[in-house]
Design goal:
Largest sheet: 8 strands, mixed
Protein name: gibberellin 2beta-dioxygenase
Number of strands: 14
Keywords: Dioxygenase, Iron, Metal-binding, Oxidoreductase
Strand order of the largest sheet: 1-2-10-7-12-5-4-3
Pfam families: 2OG-FeII_Oxy (PF03171), DIOX_N (PF14226)
InterPro entries: DIOX_N (IPR026992), IPNS-like_FE2OG_OXY (IPR044861), IPNS-like_sf (IPR027443), Iron_ascorbate_oxido_reductase (IPR050231), Oxoglu/Fe-dep_dioxygenase_dom (IPR005123)
Bound molecules: gibberellin A4
Structural class: alpha+beta
Distance between the termini: 37 Å
GO molecular function, one term: metal ion binding
Length: 341
């Protein structure tokens, strides 16, 4: 659907919220929704999706299964780890010394892989866990595909489904991460691990250090505990550039990943984000990282390369990118290693 150019001009002249909220039920029509999504992902790399169509029962079923696991004794949880890189992890993130104030489960979303891992996560009834995961993954994958199809339309791609097809392939390498942040022990100053943030009021401990997500699109949902912060795209990382994202358990927070930045030649931006440790209540968050198959070739879509906007990254495969990312620390600017010429 084509949006009349005067409607577009009117839309673009309105200031964009720091955290754009996008109503996925498209009250003003599909064309406008597509334009809103492109603008949010180009100017913020991030938006809050409401009326997204994922039934609350699907989310609460997964939360209950996850909380039942995290409530188990440490020795039982350790049997589902260590993360290599998938499985149960506590404090350690990746293999190069990054630490956070959390424990987590990191799963491949392919159903056979979920079933294998579920045997160590819910020893009493593995299918209880795997069914909750599979149902959740199906729902968030559908949401991610919808967002990507709309972005494809909004960007004027000849084949608007080319982005969503990358993540809906049967051999897609998508992951699900469930993070459990226990309440932090003290708010008096910097803690061990990734250290504290100077000058910030309240909690100063980092729950999960700053990074960009390597994949195509990330779809996050959390309970009612704050903690997520995003760095404004033009920010330089000073404290004033970090924006607190107020918790909303009924919404999904969606961000652009490195691959989507590369596929759109930098038009859509992969933003840096982090999680501050909570002081009073445990935070539970679940993130679906939508990724292509390992062999997928990532190169700028032709519509995004113009004389005014020449190719920014050299072509690479997801497998190649993954190898680079696992060799680096969490906060590394990996995409810089793939700059063209
Ligand atoms: C960041 C985004 C996802 O949580 C993740 C993380 C992954 C991991 O925990 O194994 C990485 C990190 C993330 C990027 C750099 C490497 C790999 C930890 C790390 C230090 C699951 C992902 O895909 O990349």
């Amino acid at each position: 659907m084509v949006v009349p150019s005067d409607t577009m001009a009117a839309l673009e002249s309105l200031p964009l919220d720091i955290i754009p909220t996008v109503d996925m039920s498209a009250p003003a029509g599909r064309g406008e929704l597509a334009q809103r999504l492109v603008r949010a992902c180009a100017e913020r790399g991030f938006f809050k999706a409401v009326n997204h169509g994922v039934p609350p029962s699907v989310s609460s079923r997964l939360d209950a299964a996850a909380m039942a696991f995290f409530a188990r004794p440490a020795r039982v949880k350790q049997a589902a780890g260590p993360p290599d890189p998938l499985g149960y992890g506590s404090r350690n993130i990746g293999a190069h010394g990054d630490v956070g104030e959390l424990e987590y489960l990191l799963l491949h979303t392919e159903p056979d892989a979920v079933a294998r891992k579920a045997k160590t996560i819910d020893t009493e009834d593995p299918s209880r866990f795997s069914e909750a995961v599979n149902e959740y993954v199906d729902a968030v994958r559908r949401l991610a595909c919808r967002v990507l199809d709309l972005l494809g339309e909004g960007l004027g791609l000849r084949d608007p489904t080319s982005l969503s097809r990358l993540i809906s392939a049967v051999d897609s390498d998508s992951l699900l991460r469930i993070n459990h942040y226990p309440p932090s022990r003290t708010v008096d100053g910097p803690k061990s691990g990734n250290g504290g943030v100077g000058g910030a009021k309240g909690s100063t401990a980092i729950g999960f250090g700053e990074h960009t997500d390597p994949q195509i699109l990330s779809v996050l949902r959390a309970n009612d505990v704050d903690g997520l912060q995003v760095l404004l795209p033009d920010g330089h990382g000073g404290d004033e550039d970090w924006v607190q994202v107020p918790a909303d358990p009924s919404a999904f927070f969606i961000n652009v990943g490195d691959l989507l930045q590369a596929l759109t030649n930098g038009r859509l931006v992969s933003i840096r984000h982090r999680v501050m440790a909570s002081t009073s209540k445990p935070r539970l968050s679940t993130i679906y990282f939508a990724a292509p198959p390992l062999h997928a070739h990532i190169s700028a879509l032709p519509e995004t390369v113009t004389p005014a906007s020449p190719r920014r990254y050299r072509p690479f495969t997801w497998e190649e990118y993954k190898k680079a990312m696992y060799a680096l620390r969490l906060s590394h600017n990996r995409l810089d290693l793939f700059q063209a010429g």
